[in-house]
Design goal:
Elements lengths: L2 H11 L4 H6 L21 H4 L2 H8 L12 E4 L6 H11 L6 H9 L1 H4 L2 E6 L2 E11 L15 E9 L8 H12 L10 E7 L3 H9 L3 E6 L11 E7 L4
The structure holds coenzyme A.
């Protein structure tokens, strides 16, 4: 599909602000902060695709297991960071430190649990997770709690929503997790603002359950509660 057609593919299915969002150079939402996306990777998208993304495109069974045209799911690189910062600040109300973004590239463990969605080589969404708990206990002999995956950030620019791209980001993380019993994470969870019904619904349709409401979680939001949404991974 030609680039112009691909832009129309997403633009025709999105609600508003599509032209600015597709270029990634202007904010999408009122709470956005301007920043410079000019150093984002300009590599052709398919150069950066990770193996799983290409493999899944081979699957026959499935509208629901393939990326939309022009999108690839890739490992995050240094050149993506400015664009990721910008899209995160326009789509999520919380602010993250520079370290938070840099670590996604420099920290091998976090890098392995981070994915970026690229359209024409440009980041349009990302997921960053980390592994919690499950440390070795050989010296103390104490039982350690099982490890879990924490979704620290998940967001997608508006025009790219509703096509399964965020699902592909999540699935890419889940597919990459170790399957051996001793290394397996028991669950994956996230905090979701209590008023964010879209995200709560999205997680619930993907097997997450609301397990706990933390009433004083967000300092900048009113109301300030967050749902902990969790999905057990035993069944994977
Ligand atoms: C949360 C967020 C990432 C979800 O994005 P999204 O576009 O709705 O999610 P997807 O890209 O997976 O698209 C899913 C929809 O695409 C449609 N779809 C089309 N093709 C599809 C495919 N191959 N696979 C899956 N879904 C597909 C489905 O209708 C699906 O809707 P469903 O949830 O009812 O099943 C997005 O709303 C967002 O960035 N929100 C702002 C930030 C935010 O709130 N983040 C979460 C905070 S924790």
């Amino acid at each position: 599909m030609a680039q112009a057609s691909l832009h129309r593919y997403f633009a025709s299915k999105s609600d508003s602000a599509t032209a600015s969002a597709l270029t990634g150079k202007e904010p999408l939402e009122d709470n956005s902060r301007a920043s410079d996306a000019s150093d984002a990777s300009t590599k052709p998208a398919h150069d950066a695709c990770i193996d799983e993304a290409s493999a899944q495109a081979q699957q026959t069974d499935s509208k629901r297991s393939t990326c939309p045209p022009g999108i690839c799911i890739a490992q995050i690189e240094q050149g993506h960071i400015n664009a990721i910062k910008q899209l995160t600040s326009t789509t999520l109300p919380m602010r993250y430190s520079d370290k938070f973004y840099k670590q996604a590239v420099s920290d091998a463990a976090i890098n392995s649990l981070t994915r970026v969605a690229l359209f024409d080589g440009q980041p349009v969404g990302w997921i960053r997770c980390c592994l919690e708990g499950g440390g070795a206990s050989s010296t103390s002999g104490h039982q350690t709690p099982p490890s879990q995956i924490y979704i620290q950030a998940l967001c997608l620019l508006g025009p790219y929503r509703g096509h399964g791209v965020a699902t592909q980001l999540l699935d890419s993380i889940l597919r990459s997790l170790p399957v051996q019993e001793e290394q397996r994470a028991s669950s994956i969870y996230a905090h979701v603002w209590e008023q964010n019904e879209d995200a709560l619904g999205w997680y619930e349709r993907r097997g997450f359950k609301r397990v706990l409401l933390l009433n004083q979680y967000y300092r900048r939001l009113r109301p300030c509660g967050a749902w902990v949404v969790r999905r057990e991974l035993d069944s994977l």
